[in-house]
Amino acid sequence: MSQRLLYNGNFLIMDKDYSTADSVLIEGGRIKAVGREAECRAIATHAEEVNLDGQTVIPGFI
After folding, report:
1. What is the CATH number of domain 3-57?
2. In terms of Cα–Cα distance, which of 10, 4, 17 is closest to 36?
Protein backbone atom coordinates (compact mmCIF):
# COMPACT_ATOMS: atom_id res chain seq x y z
CA MET A 1 0.00 0.00 0.00
CA SER A 2 1.36 3.45 -0.86
CA GLN A 3 2.50 5.79 1.89
CA ARG A 4 3.11 9.53 1.94
CA LEU A 5 4.87 11.31 4.80
CA LEU A 6 4.07 15.01 5.11
CA TYR A 7 6.65 16.57 7.43
CA ASN A 8 8.01 19.95 8.55
CA GLY A 9 4.49 21.35 8.64
CA ASN A 10 2.14 22.92 11.13
CA PHE A 11 -0.91 20.64 11.38
CA LEU A 12 -3.85 22.01 13.36
CA ILE A 13 -5.57 19.06 15.03
CA MET A 14 -8.78 20.93 15.99
CA ASP A 15 -9.30 19.11 19.29
CA LYS A 16 -10.41 20.78 22.52
CA ASP A 17 -6.77 21.54 23.43
CA TYR A 18 -5.94 23.05 20.00
CA SER A 19 -3.07 20.58 19.60
CA THR A 20 -0.59 20.74 16.76
CA ALA A 21 1.68 18.26 15.04
CA ASP A 22 4.51 18.62 12.54
CA SER A 23 3.98 15.41 10.54
CA VAL A 24 1.27 13.16 9.12
CA LEU A 25 1.67 9.70 7.62
CA ILE A 26 -0.92 8.75 4.99
CA GLU A 27 -1.31 5.14 3.86
CA GLY A 28 -3.67 4.02 1.12
CA GLY A 29 -5.37 7.43 1.09
CA ARG A 30 -6.12 7.37 4.84
CA ILE A 31 -4.38 9.05 7.75
CA LYS A 32 -2.34 6.44 9.61
CA ALA A 33 -0.43 8.64 12.09
CA VAL A 34 -0.29 12.25 13.27
CA GLY A 35 2.46 13.56 15.51
CA ARG A 36 6.12 14.41 15.65
CA GLU A 37 8.29 13.69 12.62
CA ALA A 38 10.36 11.01 14.41
CA GLU A 39 7.19 9.17 15.47
CA CYS A 40 5.74 9.15 11.96
CA ARG A 41 9.07 8.13 10.40
CA ALA A 42 9.29 5.19 12.81
CA ILE A 43 5.98 3.87 11.44
CA ALA A 44 6.67 4.63 7.76
CA THR A 45 8.21 1.77 5.82
CA HIS A 46 8.38 3.06 2.24
CA ALA A 47 6.82 6.53 2.24
CA GLU A 48 7.10 9.20 -0.41
CA GLU A 49 8.32 12.24 1.53
CA VAL A 50 6.86 15.73 1.16
CA ASN A 51 8.60 18.63 2.94
CA LEU A 52 5.96 21.27 3.71
CA ASP A 53 8.56 23.94 4.58
CA GLY A 54 6.57 25.10 7.62
CA GLN A 55 3.23 25.53 5.82
CA THR A 56 0.04 25.25 7.89
CA VAL A 57 -2.46 22.46 7.22
CA ILE A 58 -6.02 22.51 8.57
CA PRO A 59 -8.62 19.73 8.34
CA GLY A 60 -11.26 19.80 5.64
CA PHE A 61 -13.70 17.57 3.80
CA ILE A 62 -13.69 16.78 0.10
Report:
1. 2.30.40.10
2. 10
